[in-house]
Amino acid sequence: MKSINQKAPVKCRKEIVINASQEKVWQVLTSINDWSGWNSEISKATINGSLKAGTTFDWKTGGTKIHSTLHTVNCERELGWTGKVMGIFAIHNWELQAAGQTTKVVVEESMEGLLASLLSGFFNKTLEKGMVSWLEAMKRECE
To answer: How far is the C-alpha of 140 from the C-alpha of 68, rounded, in Å?
Structure first.
């Protein structure tokens, strides 16, 4: 898995336990075209090929259009991508860990670039809020 940039001005890590199998959580997470159906923050998402490293996808969240590239796809365990928008370069990673009948989901992201540096306080708050919202929405969808 490509690591996030620990020295980036914007970074966040959150986790949640979902009362569903790792397989179910993976299916929900990796059905990119369906994200907007359960995550109200995402208005559109379209994968441009199959689920594998190197495949791109386009999505719109919070009114911002993002073009991302998958860098890691390890079945039922790890999913990660990079993206660039408005001069901000982001690395976003998901990790799934089975724990009996539940799944621990860990998400982390770093953002760097001029805008991220200038508005780091704003972007750190926004990123944390977005991650919590995404995890809670995923939990509702999977359970």
So the answer is: 25
